From TrEMBL:
Pfam families: p450 (PF00067). CDD domains: CYP71-like. InterPro entries: Cyt_P450 (IPR001128), Cyt_P450_CS (IPR017972), Cyt_P450_E_grp-I (IPR002401), Cyt_P450_sf (IPR036396). The lineage of its organism: Eukaryota, Viridiplantae, Streptophyta, Embryophyta, Tracheophyta. The keyword Oxidoreductase applies. This is Cytochrome P450. It comes from Stylosanthes scabra. Belongs to the cytochrome P450 family.
Length: 434
């Protein structure tokens, strides 16, 4: 579908066939990002990875992420942080809430846990340790604001309306200011002064590694570059992954037979211990299908991140002009009955003998995007989602609250649930069962 949103030519790709043509024949032409006011203000003038145009600066930052921050070695040390935070969720937070006898706001608990994991990986500790009690709310605010299209994005001559009347720009600036102050505190005052690094590169937080790279002069990195990269990881790290876990729990609650099958697998692999360890996860095939099916029905970024054409191009017989905003509607593509039998139903078993991959190789299933702009945190996200889900299923049985579950999707860049998922957990132990 081609349309004009104000002055912006816009292409919405909702067919796997057309996406395949882009992936195979025009990938580079579609590798820029569309710029919005929110992205410019919140992301250091787009001095980050996710919202910058394709080019040398973007390549350098992406290389740093791939080779230094999200390398397989780093994934090993992140594992310890993940275990610690998920154990806090199941052993402290959830059990405490049960003692209080109420439903739990599982959406919030999942988000908080993933946000703590991200903070610890990126900053080396929680934001509260820097006196930023409200950083969690700030992270949510930023994700929501990044999805906002202002009037000025499509009618530049009306951008003054945002400044003067709507107050949106002021709100973006306030969020940005709060994050920037936190980063100044972390980068300049704490990490640079105190040299909090250890000799073992992979045991350091991402900030320490970035400061080390800056000092070594190996990469040309300013403080602004470091802040931009950190901002990317905050924006990308928690909300996307937490949406996967909350939707997986929702679908399992709606499909009790599938829930039973998933819990039986997890508990069989884990045995009497009642706690899933990272080493167990690879033996949980069905759990992986549950996550895969969740990503099919509920892709966290239903339109990916908007791209922009760098030149004019002929696509599927049509002329697409330069600087066209491109939204790839993976939400629709992944529910297309031409490719998916009983497309609207949650059937993890469909992935058992399927050769369709979700890592950007197959156009009918692209929740992490594709090509050189594809997601950098796929392993990070999947490891966290699978590990957290395994423990939620292993340690508790779950009951629906009397009001049921509202499955309306939230608007915005990340498709979380509009209303938080409330459930009633009942601690599980094998002794009880016997
Ligand atoms: C389930 C969780 C996640 C999903 C579904 C997801 C999905 C996506 C999607 C759709 C894109 C845009 C791809 C494109 O335009 O083709 C993207 C980009 C990106 N993601 Fe993720 N993501 C997830 C988690 C993460 C995590 C945990 C991180 C980092 C720790 C991360 C880092 C990034 C970065 C840096 C980009 C920008 C890449 C670029 O523009 O070059 N993501 N992600």
């Amino acid at each position: 579908m081609f349309l004009h949103l104000g002055r912006t030519p816009t292409l919405v790709v909702s067919s796997a066939k057309v996406l395949n043509e882009i992936m195979k024949n025009h990938e580079l032409t579609f590798s820029n990002r569309f710029q919005t006011t929110a992205m410019r203000i919140l992301m250091y003038g787009r001095n980050n990875i996710g919202f910058q145009n394709y080019g040398e600066n973007w390549k350098q930052k992406r290389n740093i992420c791939v080779h230094e921050l999200l390398s397989p070695k780093m994934m090993q040390s992140i594992r310890l942080i993940r275990e610690e935070e998920v154990m806090k969720l199941v052993n402290n937070n959830l059990r405490e809430a049960i003692n209080n006898g109420s439903d739990v706001n599982l959406s919030e608990m999942i988000f908080d846990t993933l946000n703590s994991i991200t903070c610890k990986c990126v900053l080396g500790c929680n934001t509260q340790d820097y006196g930023y009690e409200n950083a969690k709310g700030l992270a949510r605010k930023m994700i929501n604001q990044l999805g906002v299209l202002t009037l000025g994005d499509h009618f530049p001559w009306l951008s003054w309306v945002e400044d003067v009347l709507s107050g949106q720009v002021q709100e973006f600036k306030e969020t940005f200011g709060a994050f920037d102050a936190l980063y100044d505190e972390v980068i300049v005052k704490k990490h640079k002064k105190k040299k909090m690094r250890t000799e073992n590169h992979h045991e350091n937080s991402f900030v320490d590694i970035l400061i080390q790279l800056q000092e070594d002069g190996h990469y040309d990195l300013s403080n602004g570059d470091i802040k931009g990269i950190i901002m990317d990881l905050f924006a990308a790290g928690s909300a996307t992954t937490s949406a996967v876990v909350e939707w997986a729990m929702t679908e399992l609650m709606k499909n009790p037979i599938t829930m039973k099958k998933a819990q039986e697998e997890v508990r069989r692999v884990v045995g009497q211990k009642c706690i899933a360890e990272e080493s167990h996860i690879n033996k949980m095939e069905f759990l992986k299908y549950v996550v895969k099916e969740t990503l099919r029905l509920h892709p966290s970024a239903p339109l990916l991140l908007p791209r922009e054409t760098s030149t004019s191009v002929k696509l599927n017989g049509y002329d697409i002009p330069e600087k066209t905003m491109v939204c790839v509607n993976v939400w629709a593509i992944q529910r297309d009955p031409e490719y998916w039998e009983r497309a609207e139903e949650f059937i993890p078993e469909r992935h058992e003998h399927s050769k369709v991959r979700y890592n950007g190789q197959d156009s009918q299933f692209a929740p992490f995007g594709f090509g050189r702009r594809g997601c950098l945190g796929m392993s990070f996200a999947l490891d966290s989602a699978e590990y957290m889900l395994a423990n939620l299923l292993c340690c508790f049985n779950w009951n629906m609250p009397p009001q049921g579950i509202d499955i309306t999707e939230a608007d915005g860049l990340v498709s979380a649930m509009k209303f938080p998922l409330h459930l009633n957990p009942i601690p599980f132990s094998f002794k009880q069962e016997q």
